[in-house]
Amino acid sequence: MISIDWTILLQFVNFIVLMVVLNAILYRPLRNMLKQRKETIDGSHARAHELESQIDEKMARYEDKLQEAKLKGNQEKNKLRQAAASEEATLLGEAREEANQRLQTVKSQVAGEADTAGKKLKADAESLANSIATKILGRAL
User: Fold this and answer.
1) pLDDT band at 32; cut points 50, 70, 90
2) How close are the terminal C-alpha atoms of the chain, in Å?
3) Residues in CB range of 134: below 8 A, 6 or more apart
């Protein structure tokens, strides 16, 4: 059977001393180490969130700049296309004008040559008619 005597008091004192010693040697350093570890992890999480927000911000700026560059490139491309179309229209207009002038020159040359040929043919036709009539009639006209 269990008897309560002075040894129980000695064991209680022994337990308290053991708790104080273990607290000083083991538990307090262990708690401090766990506390530092938790602070380090929390700091790392905070730093990771901060870096993530910075990355998101930089990505947003990058995408904005990229979109702006695309828009600027499209505007520049459209300007170049308009300039090329305008220059093409100008060159085509000049080419048409030059072709029309050459056509008019050729037409006037052909008309002049046709008129000259017509006059020559008329003169030749009259002399040929006189010659034929003289041969048919047997006398000069």
Assistant:
1) very high
2) 184
3) 140, 141
Task: Specify whether the CB–CB gap between 57 and 64 falls below 8 A.
Answer: no
Residue with tokens 């730093």: 47
Please give the Cα distance from 92 to 101 (Å, whole number).
14
Which pairs from 129-137 meet CB under 8 Å and 24+ separation? none
1 pLDDT higher than 70: no
- pLDDT (tens digit, 9 = 90+) per residue, 84-99? 999 999 999 999 999 9
For tokens 């000069």, the residue is: 140
Distance between CA atoms of residues 100 and 113, nearest Å: 20
Rg, C-alpha atoms of the chain: 58
Quote the Cα angle for 61-62-66, to 5°: 120
